């Protein structure tokens, strides 16, 4: 059995994948994972994802932190991962400068100043086009505020201590799709381009006028690349079964 699993970014839930879930053919049995809310490290999140789907070969679609979990899952169980779609993410370990910024944010979260931090983060999370769309910004704030300070603290620490995925990406053999926004300031385009250069034969796509929150900013554009890629996986499976 093959199953498609969506992995949200930090403090995000299934709502950020709603346009993709609605468009994916039903035979994929798609679901959205919540391992990032239940475990304390990227390694443990990936291990739980694998343990909770023991009888399935997996196609993983991860955004931001979700992409980090997906890359760790393919390191832990390369034979079970039949496809990787990585969006707005980085394979690099944390840098000292960004760690300092995260630690400062963690202190504010612990003081209950979540909305203050999130509103200050909006210019970095979204392209200007999306920032002018009040509905998109309000939904982003709703989703992250619903997660709460405890989840934000725990998930930031997990990202701070994430492994260096660049070490194993050249060994990835499953079909891979790498998408990023050309104006992403949280995981700059160089991060995604590096991933695409390390994974053999990865398909690389840059979305113009798009920031970090690809599925919220440009859901139709994301689907325009994700759905044909999934169809290509189906075609590969039919050829293998013939």
Would you write up a description of this structure?
The chain is an alpha/beta fold. The protein contains eleven helices and six strands. It has helices spanning 18-23, 35-38, 42-51, 65-76, 96-110, 114-125, 128-131, 134-160, 189-198, 214-217, 219-241; strands spanning 2-7, 31-32, 57-63, 81-87, 176-181, 203-207. A six-stranded parallel β-sheet has the order 2-1-3-4-5-6, with helices on both faces. α9 (189-198) links the parallel β5 and β6 (203-207). The radius of gyration is 17 Å and the shape is globular. The mean pLDDT is 96.
- The ordered H/E elements are EHEHHEHEHHHHEHEHH
Number of strands: 6
Shape: globular
Structural class: alpha/beta
Main beta-sheet strand count, sense and barrel state: 6 strands, parallel
Helix tally equals 11
Report the mean per-residue pLDDT as an integer.
Answer: 96
Give me the Rg, rounded: 17 Å
Measure the end-to-end span. Answer: 17 Å
Q: Strands of the biggest beta sheet: in what spatial order?
A: 2-1-3-4-5-6
Low-pLDDT stretches: none
Could you provide a short overview of the structure?
The protein is an alpha/beta fold. Helix content is 52%, strand content 14%. It has a 6-stranded parallel sheet, sandwiched between helices.
SSE topology:
Blueprint: E1 2-7, H1 18-23, E2 31-32, H2 35-38, H3 42-51, E3 57-63, H4 65-76, E4 81-87, H5 96-110, H6 114-125, H7 128-131, H8 134-160, E5 176-181, H9 189-198, E6 203-207, H10 214-217, H11 219-241
Parallel strand pairs: 1-2, 1-3, 3-4, 4-5, 5-6
Helix pairs in contact: 3-4, 5-8, 6-8
């Amino acid at each position: 059995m093959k199953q498609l699993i969506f992995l949200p970014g930090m403090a995000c839930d299934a709502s950020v994948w709603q346009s993709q879930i609605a468009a994916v053919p039903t035979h994929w049995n798609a679901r959205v994972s919540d391992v990032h809310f239940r475990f304390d490290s990227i390694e443990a999140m990936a291990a739980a994802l694998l343990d909770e789907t023991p009888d399935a070969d997996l196609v993983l679609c991860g955004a931001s932190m979700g992409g980090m979990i997906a890359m760790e899952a393919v390191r832990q169980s390369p034979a079970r991962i039949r496809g990787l779609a990585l969006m707005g993410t980085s394979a690099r370990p944390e840098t000292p400068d960004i760690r300092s910024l995260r630690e400062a944010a963690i202190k504010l979260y612990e003081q209950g100043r979540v909305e203050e931090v999130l509103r200050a983060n909006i210019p970095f999370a979204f392209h200007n086009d999306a920032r002018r769309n009040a509905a998109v910004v309000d939904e982003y704030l709703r989703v992250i505020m619903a997660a709460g300070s405890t989840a934000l603290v725990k998930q930031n620490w997990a990202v701070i201590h994430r492994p260096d995925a660049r070490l194993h990406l050249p060994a990835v053999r499953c079909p891979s799709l790498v998408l990023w926004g050309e104006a992403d300031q949280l995981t700059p385009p160089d991060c995604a381009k590096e991933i695409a250069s390390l994974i053999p034969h990865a398909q690389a796509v840059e979305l113009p006028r798009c920031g970090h929150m690809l599925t919220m900013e440009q859901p139709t554009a994301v689907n325009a690349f994700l759905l044909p890629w999934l169809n290509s996986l189906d075609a590969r499976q039919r050829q293998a079964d013939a």
